[in-house]
């Protein structure tokens, strides 16, 4: 998908060829120690996650600047039968590509893909101090569902985690 921002920016589905690129970006964001549930991501664990995402044909887009992966947005499908209409959303951008509206483009594109693939409910968690992300999620239809108090502790600092979810505007009829 071409970018509305500049020709050098594109969205591409995750492929096995991009597994190492995906790992480098996610691990980089994790090592910022501010946004993700992981403080680092082992390459083997990332490779297994990519295999799982590809096998399940999960919605998973990469943001590229030229040929470099600079962000991602994905939906991890729920495995238990009664929850299979939903998944957990994850998103991240390298610092160099934040604050330019790219997260909204990436998120909206992933939401459209998820709806096309029959996901009626997407959920996520976000640290309470990540105000830009919270605003982004709200603009795209995510609503608060709860708060986990003192849920994470990073470098001795405790934070609440907000739980948010979005229901598809046009629920699918898949079983």
Give a brief outline of the structure.
The protein has four helices and seven strands; from the N terminus they run βααβββαβαββ. By secondary structure, the chain is α+β, with helices and mostly antiparallel strands.
- What is the strand arrangement across the widest sheet? 1-2-3-4-5-7-6
- Tally of DSSP helical segments: 4
Number of domains: 1
Fourth-tier CATH superfamily name: Gcn5-related N-acetyltransferase (GNAT)
Report the CATH topology name: Aminopeptidase
Structural class: alpha+beta
Strand content: 25-35%
Number of strands: 7
- CATH domain class name: Alpha Beta
CATH architecture verdict: 3-Layer(aba) Sandwich
Largest sheet: 7 strands, mixed
Q: Low-confidence segments, ≥5 residues, pLDDT <50? A: none
Order of helices and strands: EHHEEEHEHEE
State the helicity in percent bands. Answer: 25-40%
Q: What key attributes describe this structure?
A:
175 residues; alpha+beta; Aminopeptidase; seven-stranded mixed sheet; 7 strands; 34% strand; globular
Write the layout of secondary structure elements.
Layout: E1 9-13, H1 19-30, H2 43-55, E2 60-65, E3 68-77, E4 86-93, H3 102-116, E5 121-127, H4 131-139, E6 143-154, E7 157-167
Parallel strand pairs: 4-5
Antiparallel strand pairs: 1-2, 2-3, 3-4, 5-7, 6-7
Helix pairs in contact: 1-2
Overview of this structure, please?
The chain has helices at residues 19-30, 43-55, 102-116, 131-139, and strands spanning 9-13, 60-65, 68-77, 86-93, 121-127, 143-154, 157-167. By secondary structure, it is of the alpha+beta class. The chain has one domain (9-167): 3-Layer(aba) Sandwich (Aminopeptidase). A 7-stranded mixed beta sheet has the order 1-2-3-4-5-7-6, with helices on both faces. A hairpin with an 8-residue loop joins β3 and β4. α1 crosses α2 (43-55).
């Amino acid at each position: 998908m071409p970018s509305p921002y500049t020709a050098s920016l594109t969205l591409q589905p995750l492929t096995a060829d991009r597994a190492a690129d995906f790992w480098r970006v996610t691990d980089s964001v994790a090592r910022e120690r501010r946004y993700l549930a992981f403080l680092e991501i082992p390459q083997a664990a990332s490779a297994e996650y990519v295999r799982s995402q590809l096998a399940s044909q999960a919605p998973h887009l990469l943001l590229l600047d030229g040929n470099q992966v600079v962000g991602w947005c994905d939906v991890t499908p729920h495995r238990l039968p009664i929850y299979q209409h939903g998944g957990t959303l994850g998103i991240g951008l390298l610092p160099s590509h934040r604050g330019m509206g790219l997260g909204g483009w990436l998120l909206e594109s992933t939401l459209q893909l998820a709806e096309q693939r029959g996901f009626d409910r997407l959920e996520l968690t976000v640290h309470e101090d990540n105000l830009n992300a919270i605003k982004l999620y709200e603009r795209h239809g995510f609503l608060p569902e709860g708060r986990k108090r003192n849920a994470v502790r990073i470098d001795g600092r405790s934070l609440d985690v907000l739980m948010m979810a979005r229901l598809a505007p046009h629920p699918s009829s898949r079983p």
